[in-house]
Write a structure and sequence with these properties.
It is built from 15 helices and twelve strands. α5 runs parallel beside α12, α7 runs parallel beside α8 and α12 packs across α14.
Protein backbone atom coordinates (compact mmCIF):
# COMPACT_ATOMS: atom_id res chain seq x y z
CA UNK A 1 0.00 0.00 0.00
CA UNK A 2 0.94 3.65 -0.37
CA UNK A 3 3.31 4.75 2.41
CA UNK A 4 1.17 7.84 3.08
CA UNK A 5 -1.84 5.71 3.91
CA UNK A 6 -0.09 3.96 6.77
CA UNK A 7 1.91 6.93 8.06
CA UNK A 8 0.23 6.69 11.47
CA UNK A 9 1.61 3.16 11.91
CA UNK A 10 5.14 4.45 11.45
CA UNK A 11 4.64 7.21 14.02
CA UNK A 12 3.19 4.90 16.67
CA UNK A 13 5.71 2.09 16.13
CA UNK A 14 8.91 4.06 15.45
CA UNK A 15 10.14 3.58 19.01
CA UNK A 16 9.44 -0.17 19.13
CA UNK A 17 12.80 -1.85 18.61
CA UNK A 18 13.58 -5.57 18.71
CA UNK A 19 16.70 -7.72 18.76
CA UNK A 20 15.79 -8.82 15.23
CA UNK A 21 14.58 -6.06 12.89
CA UNK A 22 12.34 -8.60 11.14
CA UNK A 23 10.19 -8.67 14.29
CA UNK A 24 9.64 -4.90 13.95
CA UNK A 25 8.49 -5.37 10.35
CA UNK A 26 6.17 -8.18 11.42
CA UNK A 27 4.64 -5.97 14.14
CA UNK A 28 3.95 -3.26 11.60
CA UNK A 29 2.27 -5.77 9.28
CA UNK A 30 0.16 -7.10 12.16
CA UNK A 31 -0.99 -3.62 13.18
CA UNK A 32 -1.85 -2.86 9.55
CA UNK A 33 -3.84 -6.06 9.05
CA UNK A 34 -5.66 -5.98 12.40
CA UNK A 35 -6.50 -2.30 11.90
CA UNK A 36 -8.12 -3.13 8.58
CA UNK A 37 -10.17 -5.94 10.12
CA UNK A 38 -11.21 -4.57 13.51
CA UNK A 39 -12.71 -7.33 15.65
CA UNK A 40 -11.83 -10.11 13.20
CA UNK A 41 -9.90 -13.25 14.09
CA UNK A 42 -6.19 -13.47 13.31
CA UNK A 43 -6.76 -15.83 10.32
CA UNK A 44 -9.42 -13.52 8.87
CA UNK A 45 -7.22 -10.45 9.32
CA UNK A 46 -4.16 -12.18 7.83
CA UNK A 47 -6.10 -13.77 4.94
CA UNK A 48 -3.68 -16.63 4.19
CA UNK A 49 -1.89 -19.40 6.06
CA UNK A 50 1.61 -17.95 5.60
CA UNK A 51 0.74 -14.63 7.24
CA UNK A 52 -1.43 -16.32 9.88
CA UNK A 53 1.41 -18.67 10.84
CA UNK A 54 3.83 -15.74 10.98
CA UNK A 55 1.44 -13.91 13.33
CA UNK A 56 1.19 -16.94 15.64
CA UNK A 57 4.98 -17.23 15.67
CA UNK A 58 5.31 -13.54 16.55
CA UNK A 59 3.03 -13.88 19.59
CA UNK A 60 4.79 -17.09 20.65
CA UNK A 61 8.29 -15.62 20.29
CA UNK A 62 10.10 -15.35 23.65
CA UNK A 63 12.14 -12.43 22.28
CA UNK A 64 8.98 -10.32 21.98
CA UNK A 65 7.39 -8.63 25.00
CA UNK A 66 4.39 -6.38 25.49
CA UNK A 67 6.79 -3.64 26.60
CA UNK A 68 8.62 -3.73 23.27
CA UNK A 69 5.34 -3.74 21.35
CA UNK A 70 4.08 -0.64 23.20
CA UNK A 71 7.41 1.20 23.44
CA UNK A 72 6.75 3.17 20.26
CA UNK A 73 3.24 4.12 21.36
CA UNK A 74 4.58 5.33 24.73
CA UNK A 75 7.11 7.55 22.93
CA UNK A 76 4.36 8.93 20.67
CA UNK A 77 2.24 9.64 23.76
CA UNK A 78 5.16 11.56 25.26
CA UNK A 79 5.46 13.64 22.07
CA UNK A 80 1.75 14.48 22.14
CA UNK A 81 2.05 15.36 25.84
CA UNK A 82 4.97 17.70 25.09
CA UNK A 83 2.96 19.46 22.36
CA UNK A 84 0.20 20.44 24.83
CA UNK A 85 0.12 22.96 27.65
CA UNK A 86 -1.63 23.03 31.00
CA UNK A 87 -2.75 20.16 33.26
CA UNK A 88 -3.08 16.64 31.88
CA UNK A 89 -5.27 14.00 33.53
CA UNK A 90 -3.62 10.59 33.87
CA UNK A 91 -6.54 8.17 34.25
CA UNK A 92 -5.88 4.80 35.90
CA UNK A 93 -8.11 1.74 36.00
CA UNK A 94 -8.04 -2.05 35.99
CA UNK A 95 -9.90 -4.33 33.57
CA UNK A 96 -10.35 -8.11 33.36
CA UNK A 97 -10.23 -10.23 30.20
CA UNK A 98 -12.18 -13.47 30.69
CA UNK A 99 -11.65 -16.63 28.59
CA UNK A 100 -13.00 -20.17 28.34
CA UNK A 101 -10.27 -22.79 27.98
CA UNK A 102 -9.91 -26.55 28.40
CA UNK A 103 -6.58 -25.89 30.16
CA UNK A 104 -7.26 -22.67 32.11
CA UNK A 105 -4.02 -22.99 34.10
CA UNK A 106 -2.10 -21.96 30.96
CA UNK A 107 -3.67 -18.51 31.28
CA UNK A 108 -4.36 -18.18 35.00
CA UNK A 109 -7.26 -17.05 37.16
CA UNK A 110 -8.82 -13.70 38.00
CA UNK A 111 -11.57 -14.60 40.48
CA UNK A 112 -14.53 -16.84 41.19
CA UNK A 113 -18.11 -16.92 39.98
CA UNK A 114 -21.25 -18.80 40.99
CA UNK A 115 -22.54 -21.36 38.49
CA UNK A 116 -25.71 -23.41 38.23
CA UNK A 117 -29.13 -22.86 39.77
CA UNK A 118 -29.92 -21.48 43.19
CA UNK A 119 -30.52 -24.92 44.74
CA UNK A 120 -27.53 -26.53 42.98
CA UNK A 121 -24.97 -23.80 42.65
CA UNK A 122 -21.20 -24.15 42.92
CA UNK A 123 -18.21 -21.85 42.75
CA UNK A 124 -15.98 -21.92 39.68
CA UNK A 125 -12.64 -20.18 39.16
CA UNK A 126 -12.60 -17.66 36.31
CA UNK A 127 -9.84 -17.98 33.72
CA UNK A 128 -8.37 -14.73 32.47
CA UNK A 129 -5.93 -11.82 32.59
CA UNK A 130 -5.91 -8.52 34.44
CA UNK A 131 -4.68 -5.26 32.92
CA UNK A 132 -4.01 -1.99 34.75
CA UNK A 133 -3.53 0.95 32.41
CA UNK A 134 -2.83 4.68 32.64
CA UNK A 135 -4.08 6.97 29.88
CA UNK A 136 -3.16 10.64 29.44
CA UNK A 137 -6.17 12.84 28.58
CA UNK A 138 -6.43 16.59 28.03
CA UNK A 139 -8.99 18.66 29.93
CA UNK A 140 -11.00 18.71 26.66
CA UNK A 141 -11.22 14.91 26.82
CA UNK A 142 -8.73 14.15 24.04
CA UNK A 143 -6.82 10.90 24.79
CA UNK A 144 -3.12 11.44 24.12
CA UNK A 145 -2.28 7.76 24.59
CA UNK A 146 -1.19 5.21 27.16
CA UNK A 147 1.52 6.20 29.63
CA UNK A 148 1.96 2.92 31.54
CA UNK A 149 0.44 -0.55 31.60
CA UNK A 150 0.63 -3.71 33.71
CA UNK A 151 -0.58 -7.22 32.89
CA UNK A 152 -0.78 -10.04 35.39
CA UNK A 153 -2.64 -13.20 36.28
CA UNK A 154 -2.83 -15.57 39.22
CA UNK A 155 -1.78 -19.21 39.30
CA UNK A 156 -4.52 -19.79 41.90
CA UNK A 157 -7.19 -17.34 42.95
CA UNK A 158 -7.41 -16.46 46.63
CA UNK A 159 -10.02 -13.90 47.55
CA UNK A 160 -9.57 -11.06 50.01
CA UNK A 161 -11.76 -12.79 52.59
CA UNK A 162 -9.44 -15.82 52.61
CA UNK A 163 -6.35 -13.63 52.90
CA UNK A 164 -7.77 -11.75 55.88
CA UNK A 165 -7.80 -15.00 57.87
CA UNK A 166 -4.02 -15.32 57.50
CA UNK A 167 -2.70 -11.77 57.07
CA UNK A 168 -3.49 -8.36 58.54
CA UNK A 169 -3.83 -6.52 55.22
CA UNK A 170 -3.50 -3.10 56.85
CA UNK A 171 -0.01 -4.02 58.11
CA UNK A 172 1.14 -5.65 54.89
CA UNK A 173 3.66 -3.49 52.95
CA UNK A 174 2.17 -1.96 49.83
CA UNK A 175 4.95 -3.55 47.74
CA UNK A 176 3.49 -7.00 48.55
CA UNK A 177 -0.06 -6.14 47.44
CA UNK A 178 -1.59 -6.13 43.96
CA UNK A 179 -2.62 -2.53 44.62
CA UNK A 180 1.05 -1.58 44.29
CA UNK A 181 0.30 -1.32 40.55
CA UNK A 182 -1.30 2.09 41.18
CA UNK A 183 1.99 3.41 42.53
CA UNK A 184 4.06 1.74 39.82
CA UNK A 185 1.97 3.27 37.03
CA UNK A 186 2.19 6.69 38.65
CA UNK A 187 5.98 6.48 38.83
CA UNK A 188 6.32 5.17 35.24
CA UNK A 189 3.99 7.85 33.85
CA UNK A 190 6.02 10.61 35.51
CA UNK A 191 9.26 9.07 34.21
CA UNK A 192 7.80 8.99 30.68
CA UNK A 193 6.56 12.59 30.63
CA UNK A 194 9.30 14.20 32.71
CA UNK A 195 6.90 16.90 33.96
CA UNK A 196 5.33 15.71 37.21
CA UNK A 197 3.68 19.02 38.10
CA UNK A 198 1.41 18.96 35.03
CA UNK A 199 0.05 15.48 35.76
CA UNK A 200 -3.09 14.83 37.81
CA UNK A 201 -3.57 11.12 38.49
CA UNK A 202 -7.26 10.20 38.61
CA UNK A 203 -8.61 6.95 40.04
CA UNK A 204 -11.73 5.36 41.49
CA UNK A 205 -12.21 4.13 45.06
CA UNK A 206 -9.72 1.30 44.51
CA UNK A 207 -6.97 3.93 44.28
CA UNK A 208 -7.79 5.40 47.70
CA UNK A 209 -4.37 4.35 49.02
CA UNK A 210 -2.41 6.45 51.51
CA UNK A 211 0.89 5.26 50.04
CA UNK A 212 -0.22 6.67 46.67
CA UNK A 213 -0.84 10.08 48.27
CA UNK A 214 2.65 10.03 49.76
CA UNK A 215 4.27 8.99 46.48
CA UNK A 216 2.53 11.85 44.67
CA UNK A 217 3.90 14.24 47.30
CA UNK A 218 7.38 12.73 46.91
CA UNK A 219 7.35 12.95 43.10
CA UNK A 220 5.89 16.46 42.97
CA UNK A 221 2.79 15.35 41.07
CA UNK A 222 -0.93 15.51 41.89
CA UNK A 223 -3.86 13.15 42.43
CA UNK A 224 -7.66 13.24 42.45
CA UNK A 225 -9.38 10.05 43.63
CA UNK A 226 -12.75 9.00 44.93
CA UNK A 227 -12.32 8.21 48.59
CA UNK A 228 -13.92 5.37 50.53
CA UNK A 229 -11.77 5.37 53.71
CA UNK A 230 -12.73 7.54 56.68
CA UNK A 231 -9.22 8.28 57.97
CA UNK A 232 -8.20 9.94 61.20
CA UNK A 233 -7.74 13.68 60.85
CA UNK A 234 -6.57 16.73 62.75
CA UNK A 235 -5.17 15.77 66.15
CA UNK A 236 -6.26 12.13 65.72
CA UNK A 237 -9.33 12.44 67.93
CA UNK A 238 -11.78 12.60 65.04
CA UNK A 239 -12.12 11.49 61.40
CA UNK A 240 -12.44 13.16 58.01
CA UNK A 241 -16.21 12.57 58.05
CA UNK A 242 -16.56 14.47 61.34
CA UNK A 243 -14.78 17.50 59.87
CA UNK A 244 -16.80 17.37 56.66
CA UNK A 245 -20.04 17.36 58.66
CA UNK A 246 -18.99 20.76 60.00
CA UNK A 247 -18.15 22.15 56.55
CA UNK A 248 -20.63 24.65 55.14
CA UNK A 249 -22.41 24.10 51.84
CA UNK A 250 -20.61 26.22 49.23
CA UNK A 251 -23.46 25.98 46.74
CA UNK A 252 -25.49 23.71 44.49
CA UNK A 253 -24.39 22.09 41.25
CA UNK A 254 -26.42 20.35 38.55
CA UNK A 255 -25.17 17.05 37.14
CA UNK A 256 -26.65 14.64 34.62
CA UNK A 257 -27.06 11.00 35.67
CA UNK A 258 -28.73 8.00 34.07
CA UNK A 259 -31.06 5.49 35.64
CA UNK A 260 -30.94 1.70 35.21
CA UNK A 261 -32.65 2.03 31.81
CA UNK A 262 -30.18 4.64 30.54
CA UNK A 263 -32.65 7.51 30.78
CA UNK A 264 -30.86 10.83 31.52
CA UNK A 265 -31.86 12.95 34.46
CA UNK A 266 -30.52 16.28 35.74
CA UNK A 267 -30.22 16.49 39.50
CA UNK A 268 -28.83 19.04 41.95
CA UNK A 269 -26.15 18.18 44.49
CA UNK A 270 -24.84 20.10 47.49
CA UNK A 271 -21.12 20.87 47.41
CA UNK A 272 -18.90 20.97 50.48
CA UNK A 273 -15.10 21.20 50.57
CA UNK A 274 -12.44 21.60 53.24
CA UNK A 275 -8.66 21.42 53.61
CA UNK A 276 -7.96 18.71 56.20
CA UNK A 277 -4.86 17.48 58.03
CA UNK A 278 -5.01 13.73 57.26
CA UNK A 279 -3.12 11.17 59.34
CA UNK A 280 -1.59 7.93 58.00
CA UNK A 281 -2.87 4.51 59.16
CA UNK A 282 -1.86 3.79 62.75
CA UNK A 283 0.38 0.89 61.78
CA UNK A 284 2.26 2.99 59.20
CA UNK A 285 2.88 6.27 61.02
CA UNK A 286 6.60 5.58 61.40
CA UNK A 287 6.96 5.23 57.64
CA UNK A 288 4.57 7.84 56.21
CA UNK A 289 3.94 11.51 57.15
CA UNK A 290 0.64 13.26 57.74
CA UNK A 291 -0.62 15.26 54.75
CA UNK A 292 -2.78 18.34 54.23
CA UNK A 293 -5.38 17.33 51.63
CA UNK A 294 -8.62 18.70 50.23
CA UNK A 295 -11.86 16.72 50.55
CA UNK A 296 -14.82 17.50 48.26
CA UNK A 297 -18.27 16.11 49.03
CA UNK A 298 -21.14 16.24 46.50
CA UNK A 299 -24.45 14.82 47.73
CA UNK A 300 -28.15 14.90 46.90
CA UNK A 301 -30.32 16.32 49.64
CA UNK A 302 -32.87 13.50 49.61
CA UNK A 303 -32.89 9.80 48.79
CA UNK A 304 -34.67 9.20 45.43
CA UNK A 305 -37.00 6.20 45.13
CA UNK A 306 -35.88 4.92 41.72
CA UNK A 307 -32.06 4.92 42.09
CA UNK A 308 -29.26 5.20 44.67
CA UNK A 309 -28.57 8.63 46.13
CA UNK A 310 -25.69 10.56 44.54
CA UNK A 311 -22.94 10.69 47.17
CA UNK A 312 -19.47 11.45 45.78
CA UNK A 313 -16.46 12.02 48.03
CA UNK A 314 -13.20 13.07 46.40
CA UNK A 315 -9.79 13.61 47.96
CA UNK A 316 -6.93 15.53 46.33
CA UNK A 317 -3.72 17.36 47.10
CA UNK A 318 -4.83 20.22 44.82
CA UNK A 319 -6.03 23.46 46.42
CA UNK A 320 -9.76 24.21 46.30
CA UNK A 321 -10.48 27.80 47.28
CA UNK A 322 -13.96 28.36 45.88
CA UNK A 323 -17.19 26.69 44.80
CA UNK A 324 -16.03 26.97 41.18
CA UNK A 325 -12.76 25.19 42.03
CA UNK A 326 -14.74 22.33 43.59
CA UNK A 327 -16.95 21.98 40.51
CA UNK A 328 -13.85 21.99 38.31
CA UNK A 329 -12.41 19.04 40.25
CA UNK A 330 -15.72 17.17 39.98
CA UNK A 331 -15.65 17.68 36.21
CA UNK A 332 -12.06 16.39 36.09
CA UNK A 333 -13.01 13.29 38.03
CA UNK A 334 -15.93 12.69 35.63
CA UNK A 335 -13.29 12.30 32.90
CA UNK A 336 -12.28 9.02 34.57
CA UNK A 337 -15.04 7.31 32.61
CA UNK A 338 -12.96 7.72 29.45
CA UNK A 339 -10.59 4.94 30.44
CA UNK A 340 -13.63 2.71 30.88
CA UNK A 341 -14.53 3.61 27.30
CA UNK A 342 -11.03 2.63 26.17
CA UNK A 343 -11.45 -0.78 27.83
CA UNK A 344 -14.85 -1.15 26.15
CA UNK A 345 -13.26 -0.57 22.73
CA UNK A 346 -10.70 -3.29 23.51
CA UNK A 347 -13.45 -5.77 24.34
CA UNK A 348 -16.28 -4.77 21.99
CA UNK A 349 -14.34 -3.32 19.06
CA UNK A 350 -11.15 -5.39 19.05
CA UNK A 351 -12.98 -8.35 20.66
CA UNK A 352 -9.96 -9.12 22.84
CA UNK A 353 -11.92 -11.70 24.86
CA UNK A 354 -12.71 -13.72 21.72
CA UNK A 355 -9.04 -14.37 20.91
CA UNK A 356 -8.18 -18.06 20.70
CA UNK A 357 -4.50 -17.92 21.74
CA UNK A 358 -3.90 -20.50 24.45
CA UNK A 359 -1.41 -18.97 26.89
CA UNK A 360 -1.27 -15.80 28.99
CA UNK A 361 2.02 -14.70 27.41
CA UNK A 362 0.61 -14.81 23.89
CA UNK A 363 -2.67 -13.14 24.83
CA UNK A 364 -0.84 -10.28 26.55
CA UNK A 365 1.14 -9.53 23.38
CA UNK A 366 -2.03 -9.57 21.29
CA UNK A 367 -3.83 -7.25 23.70
CA UNK A 368 -0.81 -4.91 23.60
CA UNK A 369 -1.30 -4.63 19.81
CA UNK A 370 -5.03 -4.08 20.35
CA UNK A 371 -4.22 -1.24 22.79
CA UNK A 372 -2.63 0.74 19.96
CA UNK A 373 -5.64 0.19 17.69
CA UNK A 374 -8.18 0.95 20.44
CA UNK A 375 -6.40 4.18 21.34
CA UNK A 376 -6.52 5.37 17.73
CA UNK A 377 -10.28 4.71 17.48
CA UNK A 378 -10.87 6.59 20.71
CA UNK A 379 -8.53 9.42 19.68
CA UNK A 380 -10.27 9.96 16.34
CA UNK A 381 -13.70 9.89 18.00
CA UNK A 382 -12.67 12.55 20.51
CA UNK A 383 -10.82 14.69 17.93
CA UNK A 384 -14.20 15.39 16.37
CA UNK A 385 -15.39 16.85 19.68
CA UNK A 386 -12.23 18.50 21.00
CA UNK A 387 -10.78 20.09 17.81
CA UNK A 388 -13.46 19.92 15.08
CA UNK A 389 -11.96 22.69 12.94
CA UNK A 390 -8.41 21.33 12.90
CA UNK A 391 -6.49 20.47 9.74
CA UNK A 392 -7.80 17.08 8.48
CA UNK A 393 -4.26 15.83 7.85
CA UNK A 394 -3.84 15.54 11.64
CA UNK A 395 -5.65 12.21 11.40
CA UNK A 396 -6.50 11.53 7.74
CA UNK A 397 -4.30 11.16 4.66
CA UNK A 398 -4.81 12.93 1.34
CA UNK A 399 -5.81 9.65 -0.33
CA UNK A 400 -8.44 8.98 2.34
CA UNK A 401 -9.82 12.50 1.96
CA UNK A 402 -10.20 12.04 -1.81
CA UNK A 403 -11.98 8.74 -1.29
CA UNK A 404 -14.33 10.22 1.30
CA UNK A 405 -15.11 13.26 -0.90
CA UNK A 406 -15.94 10.93 -3.78
CA UNK A 407 -18.09 8.59 -1.68
CA UNK A 408 -19.84 11.26 0.41
CA UNK A 409 -20.02 14.73 -1.22
CA UNK A 410 -20.47 17.74 1.09
CA UNK A 411 -24.25 17.99 0.77
CA UNK A 412 -26.77 18.63 3.53
CA UNK A 413 -26.11 19.21 7.21
CA UNK A 414 -23.80 18.77 8.99
CA UNK A 415 -21.38 18.01 6.12
CA UNK A 416 -22.02 21.21 4.13
CA UNK A 417 -21.19 23.49 7.08
CA UNK A 418 -18.08 21.46 7.97
CA UNK A 419 -16.67 20.96 4.49
CA UNK A 420 -12.90 20.67 4.47
CA UNK A 421 -12.59 20.44 8.26
CA UNK A 422 -11.38 17.53 10.36
CA UNK A 423 -14.88 17.14 11.79
CA UNK A 424 -16.38 16.91 8.30
CA UNK A 425 -14.13 14.02 7.31
CA UNK A 426 -14.57 12.20 10.61
CA UNK A 427 -18.34 12.41 10.19
CA UNK A 428 -17.96 10.90 6.72
CA UNK A 429 -16.00 7.99 8.22
CA UNK A 430 -18.72 7.56 10.84
CA UNK A 431 -21.38 7.53 8.09
CA UNK A 432 -19.56 4.61 6.49
CA UNK A 433 -20.04 2.88 9.85
CA UNK A 434 -23.77 3.55 10.06
CA UNK A 435 -23.93 7.05 11.57
CA UNK A 436 -27.01 8.88 10.23
CA UNK A 437 -25.73 12.44 10.78
CA UNK A 438 -29.19 13.90 11.34
CA UNK A 439 -29.48 17.50 12.53
CA UNK A 440 -30.07 16.64 16.20
CA UNK A 441 -27.91 13.51 16.44
CA UNK A 442 -25.11 13.60 19.02
CA UNK A 443 -21.51 13.41 17.71
CA UNK A 444 -20.53 9.99 16.35
CA UNK A 445 -19.29 7.45 18.90
CA UNK A 446 -16.58 4.84 18.92
CA UNK A 447 -18.69 2.03 17.44
CA UNK A 448 -19.54 3.80 14.18
CA UNK A 449 -15.96 5.07 13.98
CA UNK A 450 -14.35 1.63 14.10
CA UNK A 451 -16.91 0.26 11.63
CA UNK A 452 -16.32 3.21 9.31
CA UNK A 453 -12.54 2.94 9.48
CA UNK A 454 -12.73 -0.79 8.65
CA UNK A 455 -14.91 -0.07 5.63
CA UNK A 456 -12.61 2.75 4.52
CA UNK A 457 -9.67 0.35 4.75
CA UNK A 458 -11.47 -2.15 2.50
CA UNK A 459 -12.37 0.59 0.01
CA UNK A 460 -8.76 1.78 -0.03
CA UNK A 461 -7.53 -1.74 -0.79
CA UNK A 462 -10.08 -2.02 -3.59
CA UNK A 463 -8.94 1.29 -5.05
CA UNK A 464 -5.29 0.13 -5.00
CA UNK A 465 -6.11 -3.19 -6.72
CA UNK A 466 -8.33 -1.43 -9.26
CA UNK A 467 -5.54 0.99 -10.16
CA UNK A 468 -3.12 -1.89 -10.66
CA UNK A 469 -5.58 -3.80 -12.86
CA UNK A 470 -6.47 -0.78 -14.98
CA UNK A 471 -2.80 0.11 -15.25
CA UNK A 472 -2.07 -3.34 -16.67
Amino acid sequence: MDAEVNAWFDEELAGSTFADERLGKRLRQLVERLDGAMGASIPLACQDWANTKAAYRFFANDRVSEGEILAGHFQATRSRFASTTGPILVLQDTSEFIYQRKRPERIGFTGRTNKGKADRSWTQSVCGLLMHSSMAVTLDGLPLGLAAIKFWTRSKFKGTAALKKKVNLTRLPIEEKESFRWLQNMRESIALFGDAARCIHVGDRESDIYELFCMAHELGTHFLVRTCVDRLAGDGEHTIAAEMNEAEISGMHEVEVRDANGKPETIAVEIRFRRIHVLPPIGKRKRYPALDLTVIHAQERTEPKHRPRIDWKLITDLPVLSHEDAIEKLDWYAMRWKIETFHKILKSGCKAEEARLQTAERLVKLIAVFCILAWRIFWMTMLNRATPNADPTVAITQIEMKLLDHLLPDKGEPLASRAGTLSGYLIKIAKLGGYLARAHDPPPGNTVMWRGLSRLSDIRIGMTISAELVGN
